[in-house]
Specification:
Two copies of one chain form a homodimer. The first copy, chain A, has 186 residues and is mainly α. The first copy, chain A, contains eight helices and three strands; from the N terminus they run H-H-H-E-H-H-E-E-H-H-H. In chain A, strands 1-3-2 form a three-stranded antiparallel sheet. The radius of gyration of chain A is 21 Å and the shape is globular. The N terminus of chain A is likely disordered. Chain A binds a DNA duplex (30 and 30 nucleotides) through helix 2, helix 3 and helix 5.
Amino acid sequence: MATPPGTAPLDAVPLAAAHPGPTDADRLHGEQPLRDEDLLRLDQQICFSLNAASRAFGGVYRVLLKDLGLTYPQYLVMLVLWEHGELPVKRIGEHLRLDSGTLSPLLKRLEAAGLVRRERSPEDERSVTVSLTDAGRELRDRAGQVPRTLLTATGLPVEDLAALRVLLDRVTGALDSAVLADGAED
Amino acid sequence: MATPPGTAPLDAVPLAAAHPGPTDADRLHGEQPLRDEDLLRLDQQICFSLNAASRAFGGVYRVLLKDLGLTYPQYLVMLVLWEHGELPVKRIGEHLRLDSGTLSPLLKRLEAAGLVRRERSPEDERSVTVSLTDAGRELRDRAGQVPRTLLTATGLPVEDLAALRVLLDRVTGALDSAVLADGAED
DNA sequence: CACAATTCAATTGCGCACAACTGAATGGCG
DNA sequence: CGCCATTCAGTTGTGCGCAATTGAATTGTG
């Protein structure tokens, strides 16, 4: 399916993310107030692009993780566990921005695959502690080449990826507080 | 700033996306080859951030679109139709990077909501043409403030959003060709 | 201590994403 | 013309993402 990023009118952009240049933004950023129509167009661009990028990542990970028997979200959970060793479901959810509705079945599948253990915390019987099995720890070595392969596949130099991450995190923070502010007014 | 080397999390980044400066990337981009451990960390950062951003967008859109009775993917389809008026399923999929497995049930729901019509093309009976109903066209006016609200909620100036889009599109293009190249070798 | 509010994981229900497959329509080629 | 590969939409099955709810454990308050 592979839609080349060249179907919409506003596409002939000089690939210059690290220094200014004549881009779509300039046309949209003149002195006059931004017209709704321009905003609609930029909105389209952003949400299309973000969606497509997110799923493109998922596609590459899916290929890379197939050998490991992991899905992309399962891999994210394993990354968190590899880093922290053992965490309650709640903490995993905070790291990944996921709730128990998503994590409970996912963790059950990881447990069925023999990669993690789930047990009620003795101190707090409400909480479930997720820990790695030996197989789960060993999987980390087999996953060793995944990050390098993926970062290479992005085609971007490391500094651009870092810049991308900064932009994404800022947007996420702003959107989260916006939605909280909206939800809080009653 | 001078992030001391070692295991410190790559978090305290000067928010400088539009011009170069000393960032995490520099530490990762020195003369020595990048260590697998650094790559693992950056890989985590990127995929966490992209995932979180994608879902944060979805969350805000969900709130904004609730009144219109649309989900976020349905809104994307409507955006395409508002722009092009009438398209076969295949073309919609190319615009949005989606296949019939996703679009068929989604379009069926839009049809049930009275927003679109689906009819077999007379020239090619395999193809299904999707067109807007009057209600579908009228919805565009009610959606008028969505883009402005959303772009404001991102907290980023328009030129940063445009830069973000460029980075995302480059990544998507590279990832797609990487996955195609990988899938083609056999 | 009793009792209400809160916290946590799990479940249910709906919609999307994607692989794999089905089946009909089309186009190419001998 | 007959046959086969291709193209298209749709279906099925699995897994995520999230809202809403449930039920048990814990905490706070009188």
